[in-house]
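During the no-cost extension, the postdoctoral fellow (Dr. R.K.) reprocessed legacy sequence entries with the updated structure-token encoder. One reprocessed record is reproduced below for audit purposes.
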Amino acid sequence: MGSVPSNSIHLMYRVYRNIFPNVHKELEYWTSRAKSIPDKELRTQALSSIQDKTFHCEGGSIYALLAGEHSLKAIRFIVAYQTISDYLDNLCDRSTSMDPEDFRMLHLSMEDALSPNNKCRDYYYFRQEKDDGGYLHDLVETCQQILGETESYELISKHTKKLGRLYSDLQVHKHVIEEERIPRLKQWFEDHQSEWPELNWYEFSACTGSTLGIFCLVSYALGSKMNPQLAEQIERSYFPFMQGLHILLDYYIDQEEDEREGDLNFCAYYDHEEQMKGRFKYFVERTNEEVQKLPDPSFHQMIHKGLVGMYLADQKVGRLSNGRSFVKDLLKISGKKASFFYYNTKMYHTLKPGRQG
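Re-encoded structure tokens follow.
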């Protein structure tokens, strides 16, 4: 696939030419698997998680450009892992259970997916719907197979597992019954606060909710560019600030929808709009600093700017009070590249109406 792109035009060309068509091929396979799930509820949630969240797999798979000639393996891993994440999110969010034990058991699949030697378990043990025709096991085993063939996986496994565990913890705490969510999240943050004293509990929660650090680690390992120092640096460059910025932007655009649906939204815990803007600015600046320490810094900078531009270009922003001034200020802080991605995404939405996440 050639060298890692270092400018926006080259990046966009490679993404549309090489990455997205292969992502869609993988998703077609998983959609056909999901259609054959015997249990109606599990089938519904599996299919809607792929249909509604294709853009998660598209965005995550941009990291496959770091995997060199193994980019197709990286796409297979990223699509399978992200599909588990989106499927479980639907099962915890929109399905029949509010049981934290059930959520914990389901999310062991994400931890097993990062541990090639683990045996698959009965992930549906605590829920009434069980028969998925082997769908979740297949997703887990696809991830395990790719990681098992990755020579330097042992150099990154402690970092992928740490990020994976934090992600799973968040999903358990945030999906329980409403009155337990905030106490559980605050208590969880207390266990980690000494490491991240500059974060609020809701910001820490947001930082754990992204899969980008895992995708970056695995893609570099597949590209045989890994050593212990780099593995350490990737974790630090992505967690907490890049991942936090990613998820805070996601919550920012969903504010109106989440309020209507009564869903948890971490942006709701800022005291006022100016405080939120200031903290977003802080996350943008800290991410800038951290990604400069990585190899291919201009690639990571583009992902960073792309997140800002693409999220702010979402049509949902137009429904937010002060949305326009928030966009203007954040693009100003983020620089020309973010504006490039913002206007490109706006154009993409205009040409492809109906595609909104």
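Confidence is low (pLDDT under 50) at residues 353-357. The two ends are 29 Å apart (CA to CA). The remaining legacy entries will be reprocessed before the final report is submitted.
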